UniProtKB/TrEMBL annotation:
Protein name in the entry: TetR family transcriptional regulator
Annotated PROSITE patterns: HTH_TETR_1, HTH_TETR_2
Protein's UniProt keywords contain Electron transport: no
Organism: Amycolatopsis vancoresmycina DSM 44592
Signal peptide span: none
UniProt domain HTH tetR-type: residue ranges: 11-71
UniProt GO molecular function: DNA-binding transcription factor activity; transcription cis-regulatory region binding
PANTHER family membership: HTH-TYPE TRANSCRIPTIONAL REGULATOR BETI, HTH-TYPE TRANSCRIPTIONAL REGULATOR RUTR
Location of the DNA-binding region in this protein: 34-53
Keywords: DNA-binding, Transcription, Transcription regulation
Length: 218
């Protein structure tokens, strides 16, 4: 078997395992679902599940494209403000997700439903929510650092931190809002992403002006 074919087969198996896990988590609960049940649903050996996903919660966190590493790369290359870079990063990542799914013959609506389901599962479990928040913290630190540099304040000053928390929390909440649930694909969320960034930018500009700071946002 060629390396390319082997990698495709591995990716297909990995995807099938994650699909099976999401189905079971949704129907009977995350904590109530066992690795053996996931393996049976995916028609693979239990060992295969653990080879791909060593920990049970990896089934929900692995392969998320919205990583701190990808955002850091976008921020290093940004020509404008940090908020502009975050907006571009979100749009580019969402477009890439939809293109990947179409190239694989998958329905974007189905993929969006799975991402929304994942978000609901994370919000419903204390431990999963805690792990998710740890990841969000990395994003907040990056955004705060960029905004601090934009407006000439330390990254741990209140205004950069407050804006970063607003941005990351707002983007996270899109998935579980009424407006977000009404969408049929990841890229359909673009207007909601813009709304979150506009809200954060307005707060930053207004507060900065009140404190005698002129944020370099445009």
């Amino acid at each position: 078997m060629s390396d390319g074919r082997r990698e495709r087969k591995k990716a297909q198996t990995r995807s099938r395992i994650q699909e099976a896990a999401l189905d079971l988590f949704a129907s009977q609960g995350y904590r109530e679902t066992t690795i053996a049940q996931i393996a049976a649903r995916a028609d693979v050996a239990t060992r295969t599940v653990t080879l791909h996903f060593p920990a049970k919660d990896d089934l929900l966190f692995a392969d998320d494209p919205f990583t701190a590493e990808s955002l850091a790369g976008r921020l290093r290359e940004r020509p404008g403000s940090t908020l502009d870079a975050v907006r571009d990063w979100m749009h580019a990542t969402m477009r890439a997700l939809d293109e990947r799914d179409r190239d694989s013959g998958l329905d974007p609506a189905h993929i969006w439903q799975r991402r929304a389901l994942r978000a609901g599962l994370l919000m419903a479990d204390d431990d999963l929510r805690g792990r998710a928040r740890a990841g969000y913290r990395d994003l907040e630190v990056l955004v705060a650092g960029g905004i601090g540099a934009d407006i000439g304040l330390p990254a741990d000053a209140l205004l950069p931190r407050l804006t970063a928390v607003t941005v990351v929390a707002g983007l996270r909440e899109i998935y579980v809002t009424r407006e977000g649930r009404a969408q049929s694909s990841t890229s359909d969320l673009s207007p909601l992403v813009d709304e979150v960034l506009a809200f954060a930018e307005a707060g930053l500009t207004r507060t900065g002006a009140a404190r005698g700071i002129l944020p370099g946002l445009t």
